[in-house]
Amino acid sequence: GFHPIIAVLIDNKEEISNTVYSGSVRYSDTTFPASSKNVDVYCLFSNQPTLPFRIRIPSKNLTSPTLNGPQTYRFANLVINWGDPDLIVIVEPA
């Protein structure tokens, strides 16, 4: 199956540590002031072979190119404003 393990770093600080695939949403314990941030999403897979995947942040209408294998993808200079909807990071099959 498709079982990605992801960690989310914001401005080079790990804010959400490695997840275990569960289908549920995990939130950061930290809130962030309105500003521009680099959001790095590190992804690996618990099962081989890895499958092509994409990373999406729906509330910002952002999608990575198709990726494959363990790697980090950066959404650079992501503007976060007060009142924005949640920044939910989704890793899905490409």
TrEMBL record:
- What protein is this chain from? Uncharacterized protein
- Record organism: Dyadobacter jejuensis
